[in-house]
Every structure is written in C-alpha cells, then in structure tokens.
Design goal:
Blueprint lengths: L2 E5 L6 H15 L4 E5 L20 H7 L4 E4 H6 L5 H6 L11 E4 L1 H10 L2 E4 L1
Length: 122
C-alpha cells in the first residue's frame, strides 16, 4: 500500500515535524510513499532559512532521506522560493531552492493522488 504525504504546514509547525517522522518511519520500514510540499509547506525548501545550531533543521532532515522532494512551483514562487531556471524566467535576482528539492507543477500532485492508496495531510 502506498501513501502520499501532503505537507501544507509551515516548517515551524509541529505538524511539519510529524510529517517528517512518518516519512522516516515509512522509509526505514521500506514502505512505498511519496511526499508533496504545498501551500505553506513549501517553505521547507528555502535554502536561506536560518536555524540556531542547537535546533534540528527540518530541511536537512528531509534531505537526509534522499528521496524525491517535489515542491509546488506556484506556491513556492508566491512565497519567494525559486530555482535557477524560474529565477531567470521571472527576472528574480537569485535562486534559493534547497538542494534535493524540485519545483514541479500540480500535475505531479494529481498523479500522486491517483496512484496512492491513502493520503495524509499535515
């Protein structure tokens, strides 16, 4: 059974950390799952976020999983997050998409919903 984790909560929310915990559990148990970052959840892909050294970094924790990390391009651009390609296309001075994350369209979310057995939103 495959699971889709739809992450819409801000990285400062406890819900975003619960999503990571479930992803880590699914990954360690070798269970099929996909993730999709949408709405305020896209902020996890901002490479310019700063966290104190004594706090875990949600972005880094997702990167450690070494899985496909799709981020809604429209939601990301609306929140000031972009990759190099979209920065050039939209005349934005610099890009700040964290390594390992990829800007994608909502078609990828539609595909994930269609092919998953269950969807859990955080």
């Amino acid at each position: 059974m495959s699971t889709l984790l739809l992450i819409t909560s801000s990285p400062t929310s406890v819900h975003a950390w619960h999503a990571l915990g479930l992803a880590q559990a699914l990954h360690s148990n070798k269970q099929a799952f996909r993730v999709f970052f949408y709405q305020d959840g896209v902020a996890v892909a901002n490479a310019l976020q700063w966290m104190p050294d004594d706090q875990r970094k949600l972005t880094s924790e997702w990167q450690k999983l070494a899985i496909h990390l799709p981020v809604c391009v429209s939601a990301a651009l609306a929140r000031g997050i972009t990759d190099q390609e979209n920065a050039q296309r939209h005349n934005i001075q610099q890009h700040n998409l964290a390594d390992g994350f990829e800007l994608v369209g909502l078609g990828e979310l539609a595909d994930a919903v269609q092919t998953s057995h269950r969807l859990i939103q955080f």
